Amino acid sequence: MCGIAGLIHRGKSSNVGSELQGMLQALKHRGEDSTGYALYGDTDGKNFIMRFKVGENVGEGSSSVMEDVSVYDERKKIVDQTLAEMGAKVVKEERTLPYSLRYEIDYDTKDLLDFSQRIESIPGVEILSMGKSLEVIKDLGNAKMVCDRYSLDKVVGTHAIGHARMATESGVDIKSAHPFWGYPFSDVSVVHNGQLTNYWNNRRVLENKGMRFMSECDSELIAVYIAEKMRHGATLEEGMKESLTGLDGVFTYFVATKDSLGMAKDTMAAKPLVLYESDDLVAMGSEEIAIRSVLPQEIDTYDPFDGEVKVWQI
Amino acid sequence: MANLKTVSKKSKAQSMGMHTEVLTGRTQQKFFNPDEAENFYYFGTYDVDFNKRTELDVKDMTAPEANKEIDNLMSQGYGTIVIKNPQGKHSLGVGILNKLNLIFEGSLGYFGMGSCDGPIVRINGRVGWSCAENLMAGKVVIEKNAGSCFGAAIRGGDLICKGSVGARTGIDMKGGTIIIGGDAGAFTGFMMQRGRIIILGDVGINLGDSMYDGTIFVGGEIGSYGSDAVDSELTSSDQDWLKRKLKVAEIGENFDVSKMKKIVAGKKLWNYDNLEPTEKKGAI
């Protein structure tokens, strides 16, 4: 059992960091092994923002192997060197935690595949997100703990999706935490609640097509699956609709891009989702209490039906 | 055992111990005299006065605290309780085995009004998954939409949603009536064993999948039929019953019930015997 939440403000920005924190904290009983945020902040859109990790959180409950902090420093140095070799200029650098970094990069490219492959060829380094407004922040603990650790409560933006995870089929670590970046697409992220039963079959097919998997978490498949469809010209909505038959199992998932937010529910409607829609705001979550954290007043909500796909623009 | 090569299909099944009892209509069976119903009480229930009314604000309460307070108010004789600010909390109003007029001014989360027997409930909002699960008797009315597993395993009573409901409505229900004013999702009536479901709008795929018995009435379009769910003739007594039920439910009063579809179990999936699969093949 995991919890997912998302919201999109249409035509305006809001304090999405704080709002999503409230929604995910309301769902913490659905799992607090790890919590992740995909925030689409207000930026000038000139530079790429790369969130990446050079190690794992090895705190209490983690399934990761402990490493010396000096290893993180070494990896960071190699990342800096690789970026310089590629001609990518780091405009701003933040190191929130020894293993977690945020770079603003001046780099002129439309193809992030080669860029990502070179960075991730460094052992122990994983790009959590790459985009001009997307930032994926994920770590162990519940929503408030992660929000406080990364000071997310002041992030202003248009939309966001998040995930409160109860680890079932893969480890308690950052690499298995949601959201997943839709590698190698700029500004694409995914969160998922459910189980995919044809994970390995799909993974083998997608890996043969050159797609990359960083974890053994079945949910990562959704991000890779949709990214692969988009790579061949499908729109986000088309990719999501294909996933209803291409993915087997029970699932409700959200996908976000730079300017849109979508949801899909499997054909058995086995996983919950409650949705609120108005002209200026769409909010959704695994349970109504998530929506109530941002809209405490009496509102009209509903459960989307089986096999339903919806996409909203900012 | 009889010679399976020479006997008819029906006697083959009987001789092999397969169940052939016709269950249709058993929901009408009276097990006790209704005139004596007032003499039946659960241990620990209260004598309440419907004219004695109070309000309870549960905004800052947990669900167990709110439920305990409802019980406390009933013990003081309050027969009408208005719950303010439920704000989507889970498991509110569960386990009420008492006559009570309960009104929620707002929406409930999961498992609202579960395992109840007797109360009359009106929810001026939406409900989450598994509302009124295991309802034994009474009436629960939801003014807006409802989530999945609406009325799961209910044994009796009336469960009414004026909006639309999610998937698996009436799953495993064993009696009672569920009435939906809007649309219903996939697997409605999944494995239902008795009782009736009325849907005025459209219904999703696999309607009545693996149903044992009971009846489903649909006013709109059907996504697809589930395994062993079949059409049946809508009789005039069905129509009279539907009209009465919709009127009492204050829903779809002017709905043209003559155009509704009636779905029942084909009863080919019944499996009450102890036969091995190969033996069953021979019998069928």
> What is the total number of structural domains of chain A?
1
Q: Taking Cα atoms only, what radius of gyration of chain B do you get, to the nearest Å? A: 21 Å
CATH class of chain B: Mainly Beta
Strand content of chain A: 25-35%
- Tell me the number of helical segments of chain A per DSSP (H or I, 4 or more residues long): 8
Strand order of the largest sheet of chain A: 7-2-8-1-14-13
**3D shape of chain A:** globular
Q: Major sheet of chain B, described briefly?
A: 11 strands, mixed
Q: Which topology of chain B does CATH recognise?
A: Pectate Lyase C-like
Characterization of the model:
The complex is a heterodimer of chains A (314) and B (284). Chain A has a single domain (3-313), classed as Aminohydrolase, N-terminal nucleophile (Ntn) domain (Glutamine Phosphoribosylpyrophosphate, subunit 1, domain 1, 4-Layer Sandwich), CATH 3.60.20.10. In chain A, the strands form 3 sheets. Chain A has a 6-stranded antiparallel β-sheet with strand order 7-2-8-1-14-13. Chain A has a 5-stranded antiparallel β-sheet with strand order 9-10-11-12-15, covered by helices on one side. Chain A is an alpha+beta fold and 314 residues long. Chain A starts with a strand and ends with a strand. Chain A has helices at 16-26, 69-86, 112-120, 143-150, 199-208, 220-231, 236-246, 288-292; strands at 3-9, 34-41, 48-53, 89-97, 100-106, 126-131, 134-140, 157-165, 180-181, 189-196, 249-256, 260-265, 274-277, 281-285, 309-313. Chain A is built from 8 helices and 15 strands. The longest helix of chain A is centred in the N-terminal third of the chain and has 18 residues, at 69-86. Chain B has 284 residues and is of the alpha/beta class. Chain B has a single domain, classed as 3 Solenoid (Pectate Lyase C-like). An 11-stranded mixed β-sheet of chain B has the order 1-2-3-4-5-6-7-8-9-11-10, with helices on one face. The longest helix of chain B is centred in the N-terminal third of the chain and has 13 residues, at 63-75. Chain B is globular and about 60 Å long. The mean pLDDT of chain B is 87. Chains A and B meet through helix 8 of A and loops of B.
